[in-house]
Amino acid sequence: MSGVTSLGVLMGNIADNVRSVHERMREAALRADRSPEETRLVAVSKTVDVERTTEAVEAGVTILGENYLQEAQGKIEQFELPVSWHFIGHLQSKKAKFVVRLFDLIHSVDSFNLAQEISKRAANLDKTADVLIQVNVSGEASKFGIAPGQLEALLDRIQTLENVCVRGLMTMPPYFDQPERVRPLFARLRELMARVKDRNWSPTIRLEELSMGMSGDFEVGIEEGATLVRVGTSIFGSRQ
Asked: Per-residue pLDDT for 118 more than 80?
């Protein structure tokens, strides 16, 4: 018999879970007077085997998010269906060359040194790496990401790099049992991007994406302007 997680996710019924998440995304967009097409689902497939990940893609998932490079390498090599891969975990500079080769979007750039290494590795592959800047809007010491006040200075330096394109911002707020408590943090990220978006940046600074919201709060993220939501538990169930 299938089990049920604390978030009410029916284990083993991945296709139904994907449909449910898409419907909840659609309803959240409509509540905010947004088009449902403005937000895309990143199904977080860390620790999920290839078979179950394939079920999600067959059910309509088009983007898979991975946190751990070593696990993702094997999974990507085995995967047969067309899908976009996003790296959503913390990235060390020494692993940048592998991540640049394997992934279509990196959500977690939090320093100029990392952006510089990504640009160097992308140049070696004759490509431009698309990235998001991770912003620590909550100010938690345990979270990665730059402080909001550091964003413009970081973008100013990154725009000098030829093989990195900044597509937007990402944040990972604290976990709260009440999603409404996260709303001010999502609003802060949206307002931050709006404030810096129209500066006279080089063409490599294209602030379009807001990656915010996970299984417990993705609907609030959408209501506050998310274009990417990173949902794992509500699709695949709880992880060990």
From this structure: yes
Contacts of 168 (CB under 8 A, 6+ apart): 132, 133, 193, 206, 207, 208, 209, 210, 211, 227
The whole-model pTM stands at: 0.93
d(CA 48, CA 140): 28
Phi, psi torsion values for 210, nearest 5 degrees? -125, 110
**What six digits make up the tokens of 5?**
């997680």
* Sequence spans of domains, the chain: 14-233
Beta strands in the chain (DSSP E): 40-44, 63-66, 84-87, 105-109, 129-134, 164-170, 205-211, 228-231
CATH class of 14-233: alpha beta
Distance (Å, whole) CA 73 – CA 70? 5
Q: What percent of the chain has pLDDT over 70?
A: 95
Instruction: State the average pLDDT over residues 189-211.
Output: 97
3-state secondary structure at position 44: strand
Rounded CA gap, 46 and 177, in Å?
22
Q: Which two tokens stand for residue 12?
A: 């083993």
Distance CA 144, CA 173 (A): 10
Q: What torsion do the CA atoms of 194, 195, 199, 205 make, to the nearest 10 degrees?
A: -50
Average pLDDT value for residue range 89-103: 96
